[in-house]
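A note from the maintainers: we've had questions about how concatenated examples are separated. There is no special marker in the raw files; a new sequence line simply starts the next protein. For clarity in this README we add a label.
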Amino acid sequence: MPETYQERLQKRFPGIEVTVKAKADALYPVVSAASICAKVARDQAVKNWQFVEKLQDLDTDYGSGYPNDPKTKAWLRKNVEPVFGFPQFVRFSWRTAQSILEKEAEGVLWEDLPTEDQEGQGRITSYFNEKPGDRPHLPHRYFQERGLESATSL
């Protein structure tokens, strides 16, 4: 919801006027330019990705890395590990990845929770559906290695 995200950004950057709109890249040239820059940077990062996992015979021909790419979907199905899921490269929040995990991964029983609290917790994807603030959020390794930090002011 654009309104919700706009409100969230406005709180984060109180001294700056923030506008969030659907299809903003078609409405504002500066957003179009930023979108192109982000896509080029992302595509370069995906192309040069170095897996930290030492996985034998890991096929790195994963296509574009976008969840709607048939080659990426095939790679996800081929490289899902029933207990640990996917390498760090994969966004577990993607619906595509979650669907594959729900079909291919083992169920999870959280032994430290009473049985009545287990409802909805039996899938591996339940770990990735935490609400913000449930646990401290550390930046992804990509950002840590490059010394990149979130901006708190502009």
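[label: protein 2]
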Amino acid sequence: MASISQETPGISSTSARLKLYSFWRSSCAWRVRIALNLKGLPYEYKAVNLRQGEQFSEEFTKLNPIHFVPTLVDGDIIVADSLAILLYLEDKFPGHPLLPDDLQSKAISLQAAVLIGSNIQPLQNMGVLNLIQEKLGPKEHQAWPKHFIEKGFTALEKLLKDVAGKYSVGDKLTLADIFLVPQVYNARSYNVDMSKFPTLNRIDQALAELPEFQAAVPERQPDAKA
């Protein structure tokens, strides 16, 4: 597993070094990269090549026995699963908060994040798609994720259309935005027509202008195309 230091532009490395075990194409790891950038936290990027099976190595299994990325190491603390990591970062590094103080807005942000993280993305992970292709063939390998993305986005569009401002929940960045961007990227890879979801599409375009989001995209990671 390769190790590369990542610095957020304009941020000095004054805090203890965080280690993020990541794969460039993982949408779950992508969420954490965005959050680290938004909070201005320098970290060490530990590349885990899922295509070569590095997640099953003895080193990584000790950190995360379920063999998924991302995994965050903060000194003696090990946190796996993107939502758990994001909430950990929110508690430990409250600067640049990613959850609103208003309870209703906070609930909507969390609902949007969980809708994507629990009801859309897991149906497109590598293990699921490989099994679908093995059992049902290559056509279903494409049709399956597209169906569930469109179903989830239909619900998400309804949830956010009346609360969105510049971003998903008003005009401040929240966890909803962090979860949205990687999922829209995946949606386009499965030829989902984003014009059906004008609120989500508009928010995604606004987020794409932010340098913290730009720095987190898969193609700009040190292990890209690995």
